Amino acid sequence: MRCPLLLSCLLLPGLAWAATPPAFQPVEGLKAAAEAYVRAQLGGAAEVTAERLDERVRLPACASAPNATRSGQAGNTARWTVALSCAGPQSWTLYVPVRVSQPQNVLVARRNLPAGSMLVAADLRNERRDTATLPQGYVDEQTAVAGLVLSRPLAAGAVLTPGALAKATVIKRGEAVTLVGRSGSFEIRAQGKAMADAAPGDRLAVENTSSRRLVQGRVLADGSVEVPL
Prior knowledge:
The protein is mainly β. The chain has 3 domains: 15-101, no CATH class; 103-167, Type Iii Antifreeze Protein Isoform Hplc 12, CATH 3.90.1210; 176-227, SH3 type barrels (Roll), CATH 2.30.30. The protein is built from 2 helices and 13 strands; from the N terminus they run H-H-E-E-E-E-E-E-E-E-E-E-E-E-E. The chain has helices at 6-19, 27-42, and strands spanning 47-50, 67-70, 79-86, 92-101, 103-109, 124-130, 148-150, 165-167, 176-183, 186-194, 203-208, 214-219, 225-227. The strands form 4 sheets. A 5-stranded mixed barrel has the order 9-10-11-12-13. The chain has a 4-stranded antiparallel β-sheet with strand order 1-4-3-2, covered by helices on one side.
């Protein structure tokens, strides 16, 4: 090839080199791809950091963006392993460890609380915690605990979890209860005996004291049992 200008001849090899894709996949791009994948899965304000990759890693350049998937168990939200895979022209898979932090205000116990405690605002306080390290979940609103009791003890400073909450029992097995049947403006009441413990909203079997028949009803907040007519 003849070049009319010496400068053009000098530039052409450089331009050809610049247009040639890199022989190896850039390491920083792999870290960014792993972080972007985790952010897309979690959303919100998660802080995501891929661990440093060995700069000596030499993977053949991928013809398209590597495919990202989560590898291993999904239970741990604080640590992820992202598998980055290239289909070609030379296939490979790289596993990238990623650390996740999700700081958020959650409710914790102000003092030691025994099982069965009816929770009130004075029992709890807001505290900022990394929710990615709370696999059993958390509660972040005082209104979410209204009318609920602890199903197990909660130590001072411990995070309140959904599994530690239960509806307050208003009826005990064997107690006398009032059966209420309504149809429009018509209402009928009868006495019965509860066949189990129950909380508002529960379905409960009740023995009618007069007829000895078992009926099913829904427990109301005042401790009565509404039955269909």
